[in-house]
Structures are given as structure tokens and as C-alpha cells.
Amino acid sequence: MKARVLSNRGIASSVYEMTFEWKGKKPHPGQFLMIDCQGKTFLKRPFSVNDFEEEKMTILYQVRGEGTKNLSQMKEGDILEITGPHGNGFEILEGKRVLIVGGGVGIAPLLYLAKKVKAQKLYIALGFKRETFLVEKFEGLGEVVVTTEEGSTGRKGLVTSVVEEMIGEVDIVYGCGPKPMLKALQEISMKANVLCQISLEEKMACGIGACLGCACKVREDKGFSYKRVCRDGPVFWAEEVLF
Amino acid sequence: MNLSVEIGKIKLKNPVITASGTFGFGREYSEYIDLNKLGAIVVKGLTVKPREGNPPPRLFETASGILNSIGLQNPGVDAFIERELPFLKSFDVPVIVNIAGETVEEFVYMAEKLDIEGIEGIEINVSCPNVKKGGMAFGVNPDDIFDITRKVRKATSKTVIVKLTPNVTDIKVCAKAAEKGGADAISLINTVAGMAVDIDKRRPVFENVIGGLSGPAIKPIALKMVYEVVTVVSIPVIGMGGIMNYKDALEFLIVGARAIAVGTCNFVNPYCTVEIIDGIKKYMEENEIEDINEIIGSIKI
Ligand SMILES: Cc1cc2nc3c(=O)[nH]c(=O)nc-3n(C[C@H](O)[C@H](O)[C@H](O)COP(=O)(O)OP(=O)(O)OC[C@H]3O[C@@H](n4cnc5c(N)ncnc54)[C@H](O)[C@@H]3O)c2cc1C
Ligand SMILES: Cc1cc2nc3c(=O)[nH]c(=O)nc-3n(C[C@H](O)[C@H](O)[C@H](O)COP(=O)(O)O)c2cc1C
Ligand code: FES
After folding, report:
1. Which of A199, A221, B126, B294 is positioned for an S-S bond with A176, CB 3.0–4.6 A?
2. Domain A97-199 has what CATH class?
């Protein structure tokens, strides 16, 4: 599907926020889009839905390589080729005490989730290396705690330390971010016997479940199996995942 | 206008097929395109027992292509018959089943099991390792190709297609071995063996070290091999490798492929197979060609 870029701006060093027109299906929080980044890239690239309202889609992305670099140079009026929304998204359980945990650009899918989560009480913990971004958009949606590794903004340390402190006060944790963070969320939530859903990343080709390229290892009754991050995920119950 | 072609006993509405392993069992793509429009569907390679496949990463993008190391993840032949075939049977499209054995006996076992209603053809994937011969692919040895083809031919009433690997010195010898073994058709090419290195870790990207290259990067190689094969066999050839649009498809047909298969392009654009069919039709209209068979093998050298 073709989508017209409405805006594309840098919001931190190498982090961009892009909005485009969206006439396709309404996304569910945690779902992602496959975007043709043009230039020399061959496959489409996956990006989470960061926000969505009335035919306007927002993504938040970090420049990593050729594809994201091309994206960062797009301007209002440029046309993107996109498929999606793909994947399962977060399972929303209404009326719970919820903790949303994001690390770095992994906070991308969590804004739309925070808007749709229908919590009884919502805590949001956002962890960054040094520079923070998008925090203001979370303010007002819940009780926000920010961490940076050196303490330049907010609390000093890792976001998972916040989770350790708060785990006793919540019914469910939703997380997205770097693998070590997700692994820590899995450990903390399993130890505390609290529900936890995490959004995983893997290299993708088709994005729809056909190529079996995006495998992630999950626990089975006897041993393990590989599931598809794009179709069976990207969101998994933390206890299923074998890191 | 006639777009239909014949491969063995299979009548295809048009010459556009999906390549094994790039179209799953059709389910995912049925959300994007009308499967009834396709010439045929070749499903993911099956093995006797379910296979988990390789650990990630399994994909790596290269210049104009992808390297994959999926490791033949599949539910096994029984689960396919039970869970996937009924879905495929609900469409009016020939189903061709790709089989990958580790021994000749495994190929025969699967061919017998799949000799059932709802399946039109068997595609023998000889690119998998021959465990009895120390893991070298069956497909590099013409004697093995002949032997498997002959035994599978005896084991099934379906159209037998032998899928050749390009990772050989002389593809013509392999094609002739398949024809001699009784194949109804030959398909080529499978992926080209390749490798990628992570310079930070100084390790291969894939745990398996070697992966299979597909996509536009391999199209010239594929086209040349199809050209070579059509000159030495009289059975139909299904051409594939890097087809991204109707023009690519026409190149293969002009060279002499009776049908073409689209693989990696499905990942980039899930609508591509139908777009290719429409593109071929338009080309025929514009050039006042009544029958697709006028195009096939029409290359002037
Ligand atoms: C479901 C899902 C949702 C995602 N959502 C976002 C998002 O909202 N914002 C965002 O900035 N990024 C997101 N990503 C990661 C993003 O897809 C990659 O950063 C992007 O594909 C890199 O493309 P590139 O061409 O710029 O870099 P490449 O040149 O392809 O790669 C540069 C680096 O990025 C890594 N990379 C490449 N593809 C992926 C991938 N699929 N997942 C993780 N790392 C990858 C490579 O290993 C390499 O280190 C998501 C990934 C997935 C799987
Ligand atoms: C992800 C992936 C999985 C594949 N799996 C199989 C398979 O199971 N059996 C097989 O015979 N070929 C398999 N192939 C090879 C393709 O069917 C095809 O021969 C090859 O990719 C060349 O065509 P393409 O460039 O259009 O993709 C696979 C290719 C890819 C990219
Ligand atoms: S990206 Fe193809 S199966 Fe997930």
C-alpha cells in the first residue's frame, strides 16, 4: 500500500519520528509495518506502530544502516510502500495494574500501547543510555519514571532496577527493548509470578509468516520449537521464550 | 488468449508457479492474493519427520538478494497431509509437493505417502545432504539423481519434477540424469551456495557457515543454466532464480522454460505472482501473441 509522508523529524541524535497517511487497517498495539526503505535495500524493514489516530500513522526509528538512513532523508509528500499491520500485538487485559517498560528505541510500540491499555493503574518505566526522547508523550498517560545509565536525566542506572522495585505492585508487565533487558524482565516477572509480555526482534524477510526466517526459540512440553516472530509474535509471553 | 501450459500431466492455467520454501503452504499469501489465479503452488520442502530448522539468524540481506539458512524447518509429511493439504484442496490450483530426503528410501517413502488426491506433482529436492554419503548433496552426483528419480518415478502416479542445484560443474549432466531416470520435468535453480561474515565478531553470520543465495543477484546464473538445460533435454523445464517482475519471467520463457517459479520476490511484494501473470498477459496483448507457447523457446541465437 502507498502512504504519503506527512512529517519526518529528528527528535534525538539518530532517532526520528515519521508520520504518514494511513488508509489501511487499524493497528493493534504491538503490531508492526513492513516499509520499503528504497535505495539499495532489497527487503522491506519492520517498524512498530508508535502511534495511530484517524488515518495518521507514526513510527519512531533509529538510524542503524542503509534502510533507516534512507528513511531519515524522506520528506513531506514522499511516497512510501508499506504492508501491514503485521503480527499479533500485545494482549490487553482490562482493569489491571500495568507496568510498561521500554529501553531505548524499544519504547516505540509502547506509546500506542499506553494509550490503549485501559489500566486500573498505569506505571511507565523508560530507560535510556544518555539522551532521552519521547518522554513528554507518555506524561499524563500514567506515572512515568525515566532512567539513564549515568543519571544525566531521571534516575541513574538500568530501567530493570525500577521493575525490580515495582513488580510487587502490578498485575502485568509489558516490555520492549534490547535483549538483555527483555531477559531481565523475564527473570523478574517469573520470580514474582507476575504476567509479562515482551516484544521480540529478529531479522525478517516476508513479515507475514511464510519464509520462516525470523525464528525465535520457545519452550515446549518436551524441549523447544521455533516460532515466527512476525506471525506468532512479535509479542510473546515472557515465560515461553528461550533466550 | 492462451496462457495455459502443461508440465507432465499437470495443466497449468498460466506458467507462473510459486517456488518451494517461499510461499509456505499458501495460507499467508491467501490473505493477499487469490490463489486460484496461480499456475501452481509448490509447497515448502517436506521431510519424513518434522524438522525444527536452524537457530537464528537465518536471513542476511546481500546486494540484490538474500542469503538464507532456514534448515528445512517443516512439520513433516504426515502433518502436511493432515493439517495443510485440506486447506490447499479448497482452491482450484495444482499443488506440487517438494520433498527432501536424507536417503533414497526416504524420498520413496514420501513419494508413496503423497500419492493421494489433491496433489498433482512431486518435486524432488536433491539439494539436501545425503547422509549415507557423508552429507554431500545428492544433487551434485548424476548417479544419485538418476537413482532417486527412477525410484520415485516407480513410487508415484503423479508428475515427477526434479529440482536441480546450481552448485555443480555441469548442470547439463544432472539434467540428463533426471530425464533418464524418468522425470516428467526439471526445475532449476535452487539457491546458490554463499557465505557472509560478521566483521565485528569475525565469525560467519550463520551458525551453519554456508547459506543459500536467492533473489535478483542470481538471475543471470539461473537464466544461463535454464538455457543450457533446455538444449539437452526434451522434457519441460521450470525456470526460477531472481524473478522479480513479468520481464524477468519472459526472459526465462523466451529462453525455453515451459513455466517459471517466483521465490524471494514474494517476500518483497506479496502480490508479485499475480502482477507477473497480468504483466505477461499485457505483453502478449501488446505484441498480439495468441498463445504463450509462441513465446516459449523463441530465443533467436
Ligand atoms: C517487529 C519489529 C519491530 C521493529 N520496530 C522498530 C521500531 O519501531 N523502530 C526502530 O528503530 N527499529 C525497529 N525495529 C528494528 C529495525 O527493523 C531495524 O533497525 C532495521 O531493519 C534496520 O535496517 P537498516 O537497513 O537501517 O539496517 P541494516 O543495514 O539492515 O542493519 C543494521 C543493523 O541493524 C540490525 N538489524 C537489521 N534488521 C533488524 C531487525 N529486523 N531487527 C533488529 N535488528 C536488525 C542489523 O543486525 C545491523 O546490526 C524493529 C524490528 C522488528 C523485528
Ligand atoms: C527462504 C527460502 C527457503 C527455501 N526453501 C526451499 C525448500 O524448502 N525446497 C526447495 O527446493 N527450495 C527452497 N528454496 C529455493 C527456492 O525455491 C528457489 O529455488 C530459489 O530461491 C531461487 O529462486 P528465487 O531467486 O526466485 O528465490 C528456498 C528459498 C528461500 C529463499
Ligand atoms: S519474516 Fe518471514 S516468516 Fe517471519
Report:
1. A199
2. alpha beta
Q: Which domain holds residue B223?
A: 5-53+70-190+214-294
* Ligand 1 atom closest to Cα of residue A50: 8
Tell me: the pLDDT tens digits for B31-47?
999 999 999 999 999 99
Amino acid at B105: E
Q: How far is B233 from chain A (nearest CA, A)?
A: 32
pLDDT tens for chain B, 301 residues: list them: 999 999 999 999 999 999 999 999 999 999 999 999 999 999 999 999 999 999 999 999 999 999 999 999 999 999 999 999 999 999 999 999 999 999 999 999 999 999 999 999 999 999 876 666 666 688 899 999 999 999 999 999 999 999 999 999 999 999 999 999 999 999 999 999 999 999 999 999 999 999 999 999 999 999 999 999 999 999 999 999 999 999 999 999 999 999 999 999 999 999 999 999 999 999 999 999 999 999 999 999 8
Of B166, B169, B164, B167, the residue nearest B185 (C-alpha) = B164
Distance B240 CA to ligand 2 centre (A): 9
CATH number at residue B86: 3.20.20.70
Q: Is residue B155 part of a domain?
A: yes
Cβ of A43 and B70 within 8 Å? no
Cα A232 to ligand 3 centroid, rounded to whole Å: 10
Is residue B59 in a domain?
no
**Closest partner residue to B28 among A209, A224, A226, by Cβ?**
A209
> Is residue B197 assigned to a domain?
no
Of B262, B255, B254, give the one whose Cα is nearest residue B292.
B254
**Boundaries of every domain in chain A:** 2-86, 97-199
- For B267, the closest of A43, A202, A231 (CB atoms) is A43
- Is B58 inside any structural domain? no
Is B220's Cβ below 8 Å from some Cβ in A?
A: no
- Is A3 in the B-facing interface, judged by CB distances under 8 Å? no
Residues of B annotated in the binding site for FMN, as ranges?
20, 44-45, 98, 125, 163, 189, 215, 241-242, 263-264
Name all residues whose Cβ lies below 6 A of ligand 2: A 211, 213; B 19-22, 44-45, 68, 70, 72, 98, 125, 163, 190-191, 214-215, 218, 240-243, 262-265
- Please check whether residue A215 touches B, CB under 8 A: yes
The secondary structure element, H or E, covering residue A83 is strand A79-86
- Number of compact structural domains in chain B: 1
Q: Does domain A2-86 have CATH number 2.40.30.10?
A: yes
The pTM of this model reads 0.95
Q: How far does the CA of residue B65 sit from the closest CA of chain A (Å)? A: 7
